[in-house]
Amino acid sequence: MSNPVLNVGVIVDGVEVPAWIAELLKSIEKGHAARIVHVEYAQSISRAEGQINSFYQRIDRSLFPVGEDALQQVPLPTPLIPSPDANESVDVVLHLSRVSPTKTDAPLGTWFFQPDLLRETACLNAAAEDATVATARLFAFYKGDAFCIDQTHTALHTYSVGRSNQRLYWTAHTFIPRRLEALQAHGADAFYRRHGYCAEPSAYTPAKRRPFSPFQLLKRTLHSGLSDWWQSTEWHVYFGIHNETDLPPSFDHFTPLESPPGTYWADPFPFVHQGRLFLFFEEYDQHEKKGHIAALPFDERGPSGPPIRVLETAGHLSYPFVFSYCDDLYMLPESSDQATVDLYRCTHFPDRWTYDRTLLKGIKAVDTTLCYHEGLWWLFTCIAAHPQSPARDELFLFYADSPLSEEWTPHPLNPVISDVRNARPAGRIIQQGECILRPAQDCSKRYGYGLHLREIETWDTAHYSEKTHTSLLPTGARLGLHTLNRQDQWVFVDIKRRKEKGTP
What we know:
Distance between the termini: 67 Å
Strand content: 35-45%
CATH superfamily of the largest domain: Glycosyl hydrolase domain, family 43
CATH class of the largest domain: Mainly Beta
Number of domains: 2
Number of helices: 7
Number of strands: 30
Radius of gyration: 24 Å
CATH topology of the largest domain: Tachylectin-2, Chain A
Structural class: alpha+beta
Shape: globular
CATH architecture of the largest domain: 5 Propeller
């Protein structure tokens, strides 16, 4: 028997709210876990922005326009919000006002975002302090204690605080609807016990911050912009032989594979077929601005033939996850342009692959990775929380009885990771001794900045947790590590390098 639907009370500043708050209220009403029964206006007093701050934001929005603006004030979705009714009891209070929250007598908790998030300064302060990551946290007061019930870490846009805001707030708008679903499914005590106690929310917001300085932002922008103007970058696939069970501590002795002019290679996936090694990878055509999948044969010395184009569609393809199942070979490339996760079956190895079925649809999923674990097939993928948010911040987990299933069950803890520093998959799951390691991208400083090998601690249909086992970060002229895979003694990785403009 399912638990009753939660009655929710909402505190907002007035009849207009930021677009991201309006969307989260709509999401609550569209769901089945909760309904909004009461709305209260806090009548907060907005602080006037400083002239320098305001001037900077106008320039920012002019240079870096956004689509659906998360911070645009929009009318409260009144058709979805009932009038206050004294006969309706409230289970949970959502404090979405700039006024500081207080501990209410709501039986299932008072929820609110970190103090500076609703004042729209989280990204601004982070950028002024020259940080690379901004954080959003959702707190709750329950039975006199504080809990952090959701959080995310997203990368700041190199040049624009406005675009950084879009990433942070459109991701944060999913927090409350999905946590209400968990609260309704598990009950309050089990829900809060899962998250554990935390420090008072004020501890997450430094008491003293550096004052906003557009000059600090200008300095960072000029430094990055001049570097981009003077130097271009390109991805290269490297390979090496490593006979140890663990992975090599560095790739200094690895050999690069040189791609044809006008292309670069990335996302290496080795696969052995009938005793022969082939390397599958993304070949990106810089003229066409899209990628296709290619393959390269190997022998005991290295590449033994020219690259072969093996799969191309109208959209961009990358991350060619190749695997075998029931005597057939399959490929699961990234096809996020089509908002699908499509599976292809091999009809002639290595160069003929035909569309087989769609595993997931209607989502922008990237770098989908499959793994068989304890009787089930598991699908790891990153999904964008909103069209304006990046698809590298949140890792989702699904499971099914077969990798060919078209009915994948979402893990109850989804997203199992919400952190741009270690969410996005970066290769096959690795069994290293007793450790199960998940290669994960670190996209905090830039896309594909580094790799973390994340040790999976608990993993079943009800639980999931992982921690960093090893970090592989770029050094010297190397600017990024993106994907890591091995096959027997062969290890493959793609590395981003600087390239002086004008050089071949």
